[in-house]
Structure formats: structure tokens, C-alpha cells
Amino acid sequence: MSLLRLLGALLLATLNGMAPVPAEGLHLSNLSVPRIIDVAQKAKLFCSYAMGNRTLNSVKWYKDGLEFFRYSPLTPPTTNWFPVKGVTIADGSPHCNQFICNVELEKLNAHSSGQYRCEVSGDAPEFKLIDQTANMTVGVLPKYEPFISGVRLAYKYHDYLVANCSSEWSSPAAKLMWYINNKTAPGHSLLPQVNEVTRHADGFHLFSSHLQLRLHLDDQRFISKSEVLQLSCSADIMGIASVRRESRVETTILALKDAGTNQRLTENGSCITGQPASLAAWLLSLVHFLRWHGTQS
């Protein structure tokens, strides 16, 4: 009986060894398209794939559903270009093989924005297709940090601090945000953002954004202690870190009860000053200003 079982096990193992192994599937491993790019740059589109045990039939690139480039290694000519508005392929840029197909676009314009798709197909008999899509926005990106104006060298308790932040012309419009000592400024201290609009010669609508910060310096901590405030304004476009710009300034809030001053608070909290603010406090604010100015140079 044991001999029959042994023979049966050997036969089963032989049959299992003869069973066909499933073919490895066609797989598109990576699609890389810039989310946003400046109109003066070239856009590099990357598509990589794994064919498994299949043969590559073709790789096609599309913009908004229209084919503009094809690589077909089995059918000469192996590379083909097709006219699509907003798409200009740089000379010598296509680099395609069994594993990758990369294309570089030049002479970008407002019509170059859109949805880009890489489609890979295997050979007969299945001609299986795989594809991925990604959106690209072509714009005019700011090259400089936003401009901060209106901030004085020093303030005192109960003063109003009014600061203006303006971004460079860009498309799309930048979203501005104020920060106080690296913390987001409270919403009630901000006026609504204003976006000025003009028209670029290449068809882009350009925006210059402005955001005003208004602070009433009425925190009681400023009564007895001077403090340096760091104000920063950031300009974001589509939330992409690589195109984010930021500027910083510092100002000093001078305490009411500072050394060398003859100040007192009345019952209603108003200030009666017998002498001007101390020279030491003003020198402190000047040092902070010069230090900041040195970092900006």
C-alpha cells in the first residue's frame, strides 16, 4: 500500500511540473510629467514599463486624447511624430527602448497645458494595452520672493501694525499667506487677497497678488517685556514646494515698562509717558533690523 502511495505522489509531482507557468503581466511602472512648469523651460516626459515575457509592440504619447508621438520597434519607421496644438518635440529628444520611452517638449505656450498619457501595448496575439495619465500646467512662475512693505522698525503697546505683501506677476495666481513667528496669522488679521490681472503676450493671464496684515498690538505681554516679531509672507502656486517663494522681516515691540522710562498705566489701561522710550530699546530694535538686512544682502 505504501508503494502505491509513493507512486501516486511521484505521478502528481510530475503532472504539477508539466503544468504551464502563468505569463508575467505587462506593467507600466512609472509615469513622470511635471505638474507645473515655466513657459521658458522644456518639459521632460518619462514613461517606464516592464514587458514580462511579452514583446513590445508600441508606445504612444497623447495630449488631451490626441496622439503626438509613437514608438513602434517592430514596424519601420520606428518613430513617428503627429501635429498636435501646443506640442513641439525637441530634436533628438525621444529616447525609447524595451523599458522606457522619454520625450522632451520645447517651445511651450498656453496651449501646452493639458492631460498627457503614455500608452504601452504588447505584441500579438493579445495586443494588451496599459496606460497612465497625468496633468501638466504651463505657466509663468515667479522668480523672486514676494515684496513686504509698510513694516516699521519698532512699535509699542496698543499700536497698529499694518504690513503689505505683494507677489511678482505669475500665472496661475499665487496664494499669499502671512506668518507671525512661524505660526499662521489669524484670519481676522487679514484683509481679503486682491489679484490684479493683465494679459501676457503669449496668451497667459498674469496675476499680481496682494495681501494685507493688520495687527492690534494689545497683548498684555507687551506691557512689561519687549519682543521681536518675525513676519513672513509666502507665495504658493498649486501647493508645489519647488515653486514656493517666501520673504521675512523683523520688527521690535517695545515694552511700556522698559528700563529707563517713566511710564505708568492709568486705571483704564491707557499709557501716560513722561519720557521717550529708552535709548537701549531703540538700539535693540536697530540691531535686529541691521541683522535682518545683512541676511538679505
From TrEMBL:
Q: Which InterPro entries match?
A: CD80_C2-set (IPR013162), Ig-like_dom (IPR007110), Ig-like_dom_sf (IPR036179), Ig-like_fold (IPR013783)
**Record keywords, A-Z:** Disulfide bond, Signal
Name of the featured protein:
Uncharacterized protein LOC108083917
- Give the matching PROSITE patterns: IG_LIKE (PS50835)
Keyword Signal among record annotations: yes
* Ig-like domain mapped to chain residues: 22-137
Q: What species does this protein belong to?
A: Drosophila kikkawai (Fruit fly)
What gene is this protein a product of? Answer: LOC108083917
Instruction: Point out the signal peptide segment.
Output: 1-25
Q: Is Signal given among the entry's keywords?
A: yes
